[in-house]
Amino acid sequence: MSQSQPLLQVEKLSVGYQNKVVLQNLSFNIEKGEFVSLLGPNGAGKTTLLRTLSRHLSPLAGTVYINQADLKTLTQGHLAKTMSIVLTEKVSPPFFRVWDFVALGRYPHTGFLGKLTPADEKVVMDAVKMVNAEDFLFRDINTLSDGERQKILIARALAQEPQTILLDEPTMHLDLKHRIEVMTILQSLCRDKGISVVASLHDVDIAAKISDKVGLVKDGQIIAWGEPEKILSSTSVAALYDFKDASFNRFLGSIEIKGKGNNGSVFVVAGMGSAAILYRILSKHGFSIVTGVLHENDLDFFVADSLGADCFTQPPMEAISPKNVQKAKKRIAESTCVIDTGFPLGSLNHGNFDLLKTALKMGKPVFSMRKNGDFPQLTPSALGVLFLCNDEAHLVTMIKEKLKEIL
Q1: b or e along 357-382 (b: 16 or more beta carbons within 10 Å of the residue's beta carbon)?
Q2: Over the range 118-140, which residues count as b (16 or more CB within 10 Å of their CB) and which as e?
Q3: Which of 277, 343, 349, 387 is the most exposed place for a label (fewest CB within 10 A)?
Q4: Residue 321: its pLDDT value, please?
Q5: Chosen domain end from 212, 241, 270
């Protein structure tokens, strides 16, 4: 933990409008150079909190400190040199070039006439360079795309030379390219410039990967605050957004969408990361997935578990036990078909190859991505129910076609 004083301290803060409390009894600290993401459903109060921290709204109770000074006591000029804010409202000033618009951020540092000195001009140009906007420096701001405009808003905020920047949904309306670019720019401000960034976000995946701290906002309070590695879990994210058909996996840092599972049950014999893509395709096409035997530190397990698959598991670095193999064989007997992902064979997972042999002996259709001829110890009589597939998409197509013929 940092030994220095926090840049921003919030103590027993309540925020809202007039007599309507939106969030109450909030207490947290933000350190210099931290990236903090506020996550929560629409209407939870994230924007209200940001507007209170920026003094656009007055606190209903409690205190906000910046560099140990009470926010209420700061002059507007002092606050503008310490904090900048980028809100969601679209700004469309008429007849403004990008340069002129970014230069507006120097207002806390210029005189009454707003005349820029050479030093001010350098700060403006540095801000433009930080957001990679040199190519449209002299364009009319109203000709910019949403992504370009957002970068310019950040540049104007940087021209204030703040210690912290507050942003309300900075990736709203942006395509993937600009969303990643904006978040990368913001992260570099924390790492390279020591600027603290506080942003309300909806993208849990990005927040998990980029944030130093996250605050989960719901039901009139911050229900959790801390490092995303500790705070974001399948349970906490599901509770935050009332997920039923999706799951966040903290090891993958992503959300998986669960399928309906109404197109029959398939048993996937997998392991060593060979099934991650296939699980998603099967779930998307409505198959109910049973899989195993997977080691508990395997990528396949994390994906399958997030998708709601029924998993047979083995502790890491242990050979698959005969007991687990026998349990899996019972589920194979109940499954519509069996899938072999072509997993590499080794001493720890040889029991999974026994599952494939058992499935063929049962007369189950086995769809495999293993190379032709790479089927040791399989009896010739079993080959009639073995279908070789080129890749995951081909496999799913074959399952749909062959099962119509077989069933």
Answers
A1: bbbbeeebbbbbbbeeeebeeeeeeb
A2: eebeebbbebbebbebeebeebe
A3: 277
A4: 94
A5: 241
What does the alpha-carbon distance between residue 142 and residue 93 come to, in Å, rounded to a whole number? Answer: 8
Which residue is associated with the tokens 């090891």?
Answer: 251
What is the DSSP code string of 143-176? GS-HHHHHHHHHHHHHHT--SEEEEESTTTT--H
**Residue bearing tokens 């795309």:** 145
Task: Note whether 236 and 274 are same-domain residues.
Answer: no
Question: Three-class SS of residue 141?
Answer: helix
- Residue 380 pLDDT greater than 60, yes or no: no
**pLDDT one-digit tens code per residue, 51-72:** 999 999 999 999 999 999 999 9
What global pTM score does this model have?
0.83
174, 86 contact by CB (below 8 A) = no
Contact yes or no for 13/26 (Cβ under 8 A): yes
pLDDT the model gives residue 2 = 44
Return the amino acid letter for 370: R
Domain of 396, CATH number, reads 3.40.50.720
What is the length of the chain? 407
| 13 located within any domain | yes
CATH of the domain at 46: 3.40.50.300
Query: Which domain covers residue 361, as residue numbers?
Result: 258-406
3-state secondary structure of 250: coil
The partner residues of 406 in beta bridges, in order of sequence, read: none
> Which one of 241, 272, 306 terminates a domain?
241
